[in-house]
């Protein structure tokens, strides 16, 4: 599973997970959107949820946006590729620990790998981070359930179960 990142450089370089992925040769960073290869764009504002069917459609390239949450919506609309949103997951990174939907770049890429049933690749991506294993532990059940779905509508149904549980 190839991982690519459109990198705006908005974050603290010491905390930037995309830069660390590049240092460990786990992802390629691009500063120009035109250079980013076609693939599944992990876009928090996409209308459809990421599902195993996306991989079955031959999409082997993951593209993440590494930018501030404020500029993510604007940046994502300019990216070419198939845009998909990640379903409900909880962050394990020290900045957003326990907050739903506030994943770092590496957490987003690892989650997508898990949904595509590439758990070894997810572990490989998360290995350089002290909290990486925690991400997989915190989200073990939802990631497993999402990976067992066939399409986006099933993923959304599973997500709705988690969101309903959180309201009770």
Automatic annotation (TrEMBL):
<comment type="function">
    <text>Aminocarboxypropyltransferase that catalyzes the aminocarboxypropyl transfer on pseudouridine corresponding to position 914 in M.jannaschii 16S rRNA. It constitutes the last step in biosynthesis of the hypermodified N1-methyl-N3-(3-amino-3-carboxypropyl) pseudouridine (m1acp3-Psi).</text>
</comment>
<comment type="similarity">
    <text>Belongs to the TDD superfamily. TSR3 family.</text>
</comment>
<dbReference type="InterPro" id="IPR007177">
    <property type="entry name" value="Tsr3_C"/>
</dbReference>
<protein>
    <recommendedName>
        <fullName>16S rRNA aminocarboxypropyltransferase</fullName>
        <ecNumber>2.5.1.157</ecNumber>
    </recommendedName>
</protein>
<dbReference type="GO" id="GO:0000455">
    <property type="term" value="P:enzyme-directed rRNA pseudouridine synthesis"/>
</dbReference>
<keyword id="KW-0808">Transferase</keyword>
<keyword id="KW-0963">Cytoplasm</keyword>
<dbReference type="GO" id="GO:0005737">
    <property type="term" value="C:cytoplasm"/>
</dbReference>
<dbReference type="GO" id="GO:0106388">
    <property type="term" value="F:rRNA small subunit aminocarboxypropyltransferase activity"/>
</dbReference>
<feature type="binding site">
    <location>
        <position position="65"/>
    </location>
    <ligand>
        <name>S-adenosyl-L-methionine</name>
    </ligand>
</feature>
<dbReference type="Pfam" id="PF04068">
    <property type="entry name" value="Fer4_RLI"/>
</dbReference>
<feature type="binding site">
    <location>
        <position position="17"/>
    </location>
    <ligand>
        <name>S-adenosyl-L-methionine</name>
    </ligand>
</feature>
<feature type="binding site">
    <location>
        <position position="105"/>
    </location>
    <ligand>
        <name>S-adenosyl-L-methionine</name>
    </ligand>
</feature>
<keyword id="KW-0690">Ribosome biogenesis</keyword>
<dbReference type="GO" id="GO:1904047">
    <property type="term" value="F:S-adenosyl-L-methionine binding"/>
</dbReference>
<feature type="domain" description="RNase L inhibitor RLI-like possible metal-binding">
    <location>
        <begin position="3"/>
        <end position="29"/>
    </location>
</feature>
<feature type="binding site">
    <location>
        <position position="86"/>
    </location>
    <ligand>
        <name>S-adenosyl-L-methionine</name>
    </ligand>
</feature>
<dbReference type="InterPro" id="IPR022968">
    <property type="entry name" value="Tsr3-like"/>
</dbReference>
<feature type="domain" description="16S/18S rRNA aminocarboxypropyltransferase Tsr3 C-terminal">
    <location>
        <begin position="40"/>
        <end position="163"/>
    </location>
</feature>
<dbReference type="InterPro" id="IPR007209">
    <property type="entry name" value="RNaseL-inhib-like_metal-bd_dom"/>
</dbReference>
<keyword id="KW-0949">S-adenosyl-L-methionine</keyword>
<keyword id="KW-0698">rRNA processing</keyword>
<dbReference type="Pfam" id="PF04034">
    <property type="entry name" value="Ribo_biogen_C"/>
</dbReference>
């Amino acid at each position: 599973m190839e991982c690519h990142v459109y990198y705006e450089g908005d974050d603290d370089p010491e905390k930037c997970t995309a830069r660390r992925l590049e240092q460990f040769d786990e992802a390629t960073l691009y500063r120009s959107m035109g250079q980013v290869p076609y693939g599944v764009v992990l876009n928090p504002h996409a209308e459809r949820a990421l599902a195993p069917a996306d991989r079955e459609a031959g999409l082997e390239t993951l593209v993440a946006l590494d930018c501030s949450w404020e500029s993510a919506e604007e940046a994502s609309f300019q990216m070419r590729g198939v845009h998909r949103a990640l379903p409900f997951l909880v962050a394990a990174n020290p900045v957003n620990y326990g907050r739903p939907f506030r994943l770092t770049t590496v957490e987003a890429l690892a989650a997508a790998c898990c949904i595509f049933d590439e758990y070894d690749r997810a572990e490989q991506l998360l290995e350089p981070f002290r909290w990486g294993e925690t991400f997989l532990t915190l989200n073990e059940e939802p990631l497993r359930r999402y990976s067992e779905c066939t399409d986006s509508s099933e993923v959304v149904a599973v997500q709705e179960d988690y969101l309903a549980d959180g309201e009770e």
